[in-house]
Design a protein that fits this description.
By secondary structure, this protein is α+β, with helices and mostly antiparallel strands. Helices cover 17% and strands 21% of the residues. The strands form 2 sheets. Strands 1-2 form a two-stranded antiparallel sheet.
């Protein structure tokens, strides 16, 4: 993990601001969904990438509001 040298404080409501430089570098726009999880003693934030409801593969295909990859769509249609 790369050290950016940036330190931010958590505000009284438990929020932290992700610096503009990092958002720009990681192509995170206003209102983008962010995943939050832990890895050992670390808190990890990453841009959410939608996955197929059947296999989890990253996809942009949406059917009735759900993400479904091409392979799973083909398998279900048989």
């Amino acid at each position: 993990m790369k050290d950016t040298g940036m330190i931010r404080n958590i505000d009284p409501l438990g929020r932290v601001v992700i610096p503009k430089e990092l958002r720009k570098n990681l192509e995170i726009e206003k209102c983008d969904p962010i995943e939050i999880f832990t890895d050992g003693s670390k808190i990890v934030l990453q841009k959410h990438q939608p996955g197929c409801i059947f296999c989890g593969e990253i996809t942009e295909n949406v059917f009735k509001g759900k993400y479904v990859c091409s392979a799973c769509a083909k398998a279900v249609s048989r």
